[in-house]
Amino acid sequence: MMNIQKVVTPTLCLLACLLSFSSAYAADSSVDSSTPAEPAKVSYKFTTTYLGASDDNNAIDVNLRANYDVHTAWVGEYGDRDGFRQLRVGYAYSPAFTYIRPTFSVQLATKGYIAESVSTEIGDKNFAILGIARTNLQEYYDLGHDPSDAITLGIGSRAIENNEFYLFQIFDDRLETQQRNNHLVWRYKFADEQRLVIDAS
Prior knowledge:
Elements: H1 4-22, E1 42-51, E2 59-68, E3 71-80, E4 85-93, E5 100-109, E6 113-123, E7 126-135, E8 150-157, E9 163-172, E10 180-191, E11 194-200
Antiparallel strand pairs: 1-2, 2-3, 3-4, 4-5, 5-6, 6-7, 7-8, 8-9, 9-10, 10-11
């Protein structure tokens, strides 16, 4: 029997790339070019995570993320009780247009790990989500426990002020693990630089 995912995956990858790169030619006519834009500023986020394990191989992860306009960079390290340690660095570029909002990202980690991804939101206040991610299949600990070589499909909404809703699935399309992770995410902005995030998966 034909493996549908093997047929669909190249098509989705090509579609994501075409939609994302074509957005470079889109223009938001609502922007008044005569009005000087406010200068962008760098914002930082430091996150620490403690992971308890049933076999007592507990772990700690630290991550420092910096955002500047459409650019995001991060550096982090994961380490567990058994001695596994991995340092990572990454960069993402997220230009925003009226109806297409792509994100291109790359991440490098010790132990030879390399990962790349492209994802796109298509729509205005209500939108579709499409993404694809690829790695070189080297050892890596993923805090989210999502498959690293995967397709992402979903929907989202920003129709309610200060609220964002996402419903999407991340599924393995390369290693035939049959892993499928569903996420329901709510983000609530209650201050200029503060928000609440709930991710049920």
